[in-house]
Amino acid sequence: MIFPEYRARRLRQNETFRALVRETTISPANLVYPLFVMPGKGIREEVSSMPGVFRISVDQLAKEAKECMGLGVNSVLLFGLPEKKDSKGSGAHAKDGIIQRAIRELKNTAPALTVCTDVCLCEYTSHGHCGIIIDKVVDNDSTLEVLARIALSHAQAGADMVAPSDMMDGRVAEIRGILDENNFHMLPIMSYAVKYASAFYGPFRDAAECAPQHGDRKSYQMDPANVREALREATLDVEEGADILMVKPAMAYLDIISRLRDEFDLPIAAYQVSGEYAMIKAAAANGWLDGEKVMHESLLSIRRAGADIIITYFAKEMARLLNG
């Protein structure tokens, strides 16, 4: 007599069988590690709300890059803390700005590392918003030119990819245009195509010192209730020239990752954000769950939903686990 219901059980009886039939896998090569870079020398400053995550000075980047690449994490995403902020975020596109210096340092000391850069204004503006404020509101169109200047400055410094996170309408086309005009035709854009106005960003805003000084970002980030809007936003970014589509946050929006995977043939990225990371770390520190297993399961769920790329603060920790 044949018992088909035993098929799955027969293939689960040992790790070799389980590995042979495993439908979803994670590799260190799928992971991107975010880095917070700040002015100064010899600085390695832990973010209190993100245990294990540090703000570091430019001179510490070579060591960080060597560790990442030794683990097989071959890509990083840079965020900068400038020395000074102003209402227009002018430090974001300064030739000798913090990110521009960081890019040059990494390309000089770890040329094989893929250096992605966040393109936004929130870390650089005194008001903490992602765009230029006119008449007390973030003005979409006047922000586009500044974002394009930022992206170009990153490209000129040696970035391998730019990642606009501002959510202004039309910014992918503006960035693609200025890159092409300056012979950076081959520089890809990883667009934060679907970025929700989420409550999960709190620890990041601590780390990058970029919380809005007034109001919120709901006028330009997406309503967490909306799915069809996500598809519209992603479609626009594809039409404007995006090479990779990102969903942010990840774990609370696995359905959105899955919908984008079904709708588009471009690579899909997902950002496991600071709040998602901090919750797991806090629960593990209190002994409420097994932090390593939950880390693994959470990242597996993001891959299973359809993400090709995962930006995560767990990148190095997960790579150590995968490498045994």
TrEMBL record:
Transmembrane segments: none annotated. It is an enzyme of class 4 (lyase). GO terms for cellular component: cytosol. Keywords: Heme biosynthesis, Lyase, Magnesium, Metal-binding, Porphyrin biosynthesis, Zinc. The keyword Lyase applies. The active site is at K195, K248. InterPro entries: ALAD (IPR001731), ALAD_AS (IPR030656), Aldolase_TIM (IPR013785). Pathway: Porphyrin-containing compound metabolism; protoporphyrin-IX biosynthesis; coproporphyrinogen-III from 5-aminolevulinate: step 1/4. One of its GO terms (biological process) is heme biosynthetic process. NCBIfam families: PRK09283.1. This is Delta-aminolevulinic acid dehydratase. It comes from Thiovibrio frasassiensis.
